[in-house]
Design brief:
Blueprint (H helix, E strand, L loop, with lengths): L3 E5 L6 H11 L3 E3 L3 E2 L14 E2 L2 H9 L3 E7 L2 E6 H9 L3 E6 L1 H10 L4 E6 L3 H11 L4 H15 L7 E4 L3 H20 L1
Parallel strand pairs: 1-7, 1-8, 2-7, 3-4, 8-9
Antiparallel strand pairs: 3-6, 5-6
Helix pairs in contact: 1-7, 5-6
């Protein structure tokens, strides 16, 4: 049986960069692709970045239990398809979910053996700079994201591990070490 790793944290904390680096260097990791109702952004690819669906399709998936977790974030619904995750775990593949804090808490409740890792930004000011550099949100949206980030950061003590991302390479190394330790503990 594979291990389930949940990476969560505020928008702009660096979750995506960390997960991408780990997936590129470790073929034993499989990154789950979430489903969302948000429209694709430039550079998004259906089935790669997300599975893009309409509200009715998403609601049907949630209603029939096809989602391991789901939440409404910034006005759009996001969730993790359950079947693919369970299949990969059954194949002894380790799975990473890159999701929001609400979803991470749902996964931990349903699958208590999951290893939850909170990615924390060094400060709200730095988070504001990172969100601004992305160039995908206006000032009003950034302020909204920062308000939600403060709420999410207040829940970091509910996670198994907290990794401060004030240096991307160091944060990647710390998450890698957590994954390696969980693997060693499982094989004992």
């Amino acid at each position: 049986m594979g291990r389930l790793f949940v990476i969560a944290g505020p928008s702009g904390a660096g979750k995506g960069s960390i997960v991408q680096a780990l997936a590129e260097e470790d073929p034993r990791l499989w990154v789950a692709t979430s489903v969302t109702t948000r429209p694709p952004r430039p550079g998004d690819a259906d089935g790669v970045t997300y599975f893009f669906v309409d509200d009715a399709t998403f609601d049907a998936m949630a209603q029939k239990g096809a989602l391991l977790e789901w939440a409404t974030v910034y006005g759009y619904k996001y969730g993790t398809p359950r079947e693919k995750v369970e299949a990969k775990l059954a194949e002894s593949r380790d799975v990473i979910l890159e999701i929001d804090v609400q979803g991470a808490m749902q996964v931990k409740k349903r699958m208590p053996q999951a290893v939850t890792i909170f990615i924390e930004p060094p400060s709200i000011d730095e988070l504001r700079r990172r969100l601004g550099r992305r160039g995908t949100d206006d000032d009003v949206t950034i302020e909204k994201r920062l308000g939600i980030a403060k709420e999410e950061i207040s829940k970091k003590d509910r996670f198994d591990f907290v990794v401060m991302n004030d240096n991307l390479e160091a944060a990647i190394a710390e998450v890698r070490a957590i994954i390696d330790q969980a693997r060693r503990n499982q094989s004992v």
